[in-house]
Amino acid sequence: MEQTFVMVKPDGVKRGLIGPIITRFEQKGFVLAAIQLRSIDRALAERHYGELKEKPFFGELVQYLTSGPVCAMIWQGEHAVENARSIIGKTNPVEAAPGTIRGDFALDIAGNIVHGSDSLASAEREIELFFGGAVAASAPVHLVAGTVVQH
Ligand code: GDP
Ligand code: MG
């Protein structure tokens, strides 16, 4: 079953939106395969958004991502990557349709509260970066000092 990487960004965590965002994914039919509340250091933020490093807003983006804890998740389901992008909505909340997460909860592109992988290859890369590889949704998973432990 396809998996994708989703992250509630620091502004989403600060605003108490982990619960509503998880609810959207559960209502859509996704299964939660792994979750971690964690900080991101500059090096991880730069790797995660490596393909954007030439963009004029890259410094601001890294600052944003490292400004507080994030909630990193792996969600599993049919067409997980495309379905997640569809319920997250367009990058710029001004353009994100009402009913999408960004359309309902965010105002500005510099604070669009949630990330979702944009392709299968990105999902695999990001899951590896944050969780050290795919995690089986049926297996009990917990975290010890930031490391995924599977039983
Ligand atoms: P996404 O896949 O929909 O998140 O969009 P992108 O991969 O194009 O951009 C990654 C993230 O960079 C976005 O979610 C925003 O947080 C941020 N971002 C994109 N464009 C801008 C911009 O013009 N200004 C600022 N400050 N941030 C931006
Ligand atoms: Mg992207």
UniProtKB/TrEMBL annotation:
UniProt keyword list: ATP-binding, Cytoplasm, Kinase, Magnesium, Metal-binding, Nucleotide metabolism, Nucleotide-binding, Phosphoprotein, Transferase
Endoplasmic reticulum listed as a keyword: no
SUPFAM superfamilies: Nucleoside diphosphate kinase, NDK
One biological process term in Gene Ontology: CTP biosynthetic process
SMART domains: NDK
Cofactor needs: Mg(2+)
Pfam families xrefs: NDK
One term under GO cellular component: cytoplasm
Record-annotated active site: 115 (pros-phosphohistidine intermediate)
Compartment list: Cytoplasm
Subunit (UniProt): Homotetramer.
Protein function: Major role in the synthesis of nucleoside triphosphates other than ATP. The ATP gamma phosphate is transferred to the NDP beta phosphate via a ping-pong mechanism, using a phosphorylated active-site intermediate. (Microbial infection) Catalyzes the phosphorylation of dZDP to dZTP, when the bacterium is infected by a phage that produces the substrate for the synthesis of dZTP (2- amino-2'-deoxyadenosine 5'-triphosphate), which is then used by the phage as a DNA polymerase substrate.
Protein name: Nucleoside diphosphate kinase
Organism name: Paenibacillus albus
